């Protein structure tokens, strides 16, 4: 479980062709651990906002005119 006092969001630009990742130190470390778990397990990892049933992603949009992504799936191939 991840702590709520860190920042990690994935956001799409207004025109939808750019992905922005916003994170503080703790949030980016959590992302790094999620990527490592996917590598180690040869599976996938889900990151979701609280409204989507998760606690891995922050719910508050950080970018101006960007759109929050509520679920990110990291796939290992």
Describe this structure in words.
This protein has 77 residues and is of the alpha+beta class. It has one helix at residues 25-41, and strands spanning 8-12, 19-23, 44-48, 67-68, 71-75. It is globular, with a radius of gyration of 12 Å.
Q: Indicate the percent of residues in helices.
A: 10-25%
Unreliable stretches = none
Instruction: Give the total of beta strands.
Output: 5
Helical/strand content category: alpha+beta
The whole-angstrom Rg is 12 Å
How does the major sheet shape up? 3 strands, antiparallel
Order of helices and strands: EEHEEE
Mean pLDDT figure: 93
Strand order of the largest sheet: 2-1-4
Distance between the termini: 25 Å
Outline type? globular
How many helices in DSSP terms? Answer: 1
- Beta-strand residue fraction: 25-35%
């Amino acid at each position: 479980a991840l702590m709520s006092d860190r920042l990690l969001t994935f956001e799409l630009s207004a025109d939808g062709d750019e992905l922005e990742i916003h994170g503080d130190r703790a949030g980016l470390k959590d992302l790094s651990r999620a990527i490592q778990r996917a590598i180690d397990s040869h599976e996938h990892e889900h990151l979701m906002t609280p409204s989507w049933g998760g606690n891995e992603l922050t719910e508050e949009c950080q970018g101006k005119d960007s759109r929050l992504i509520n679920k990110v799936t990291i796939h290992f191939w």
